[in-house]
Amino acid sequence: MSGTQQPTQKVKVNVRLGDNNYGKAEVQLMKIRRDRPSHELKDVRVRVGMYGDFDAAHTRGDNTDLIATDTVRNTIYALAKEGFGGSIEEFGKELVRHFVGTGPKVTGAFAEFTEHLWDHVQVAGQPHNHSFVRQMPKHTARVESRDGQTFQVTSGIEELYVLKTTQSGWEGFLLKERFTTLPETNDRVMATFVTAKWEYAVDSCDYDAVWQAVFSQIQETLTDHYSPSLQRTLYLMGEAVLGRCPEISRIWFQMPNKHHLKYNLERFGLENNNEIYHVDPEPYGLMEAWVERAE
Q1: pLDDT per residue over 146-191, tens digit each?
Q2: Catalytic residues, which ones?
């Protein structure tokens, strides 16, 4: 290519700063209570974000009165030492109050948690005082406030893997369709990873007790009915949770259908009486819905 290439001219446009926040993410925190013979531990991943008057930092590079994100990390650990005696939801309120009260330019904040749950190792039928085994389900939470005084709290469950070996089917769906190959069945394995989150109808409660009630109810509801679809089971779980927990206003579920496919053993001269399955990781059906109080 010959000739002199002309530099690209910058086009001047008018812009403004939109919604924004900053903070610290992926803070890994463990707190061990050693003030009793049987130790207790909290194992959480924390993210904190702050809202406020941060225009100058973005538009002029002026960091005056900004809380350093390194300070946010240090604060999480320090306040965990001084407090964090109960649920992650209550600890979230502690953090939000602190940052709104401390940061000259902070007007609101949020704290998000993923808590790994641990149980005491059982020895001869008794829990060991200081040995633990980590469980699969996780306790999640988000605490948000725009003024540091009133809070919006959402709690949740992640990675609750449930399965029933029978009493599930999939019938009555659209069969006369060009690309449908799936046969109907009234006896299949139904399995799913339950992700749920719920909002509260009260300003405060025993968040850990409510979480445990939801955790138990989801499992109990799995057992108590024939499931014509994963959608029906999702709805019944939500209905049962709202009936058991008056503190909750509504609950959201995400439930992928983890397909367990009966494996073809007949080609080997073996009969498969619903015993041997191939677990198909993907693709999978995905059901999502809110179940809400109607009154």
Answers
A1: 999 999 999 999 999 999 999 999 999 999 999 998 899 999 999 9
A2: 24, 69, 259
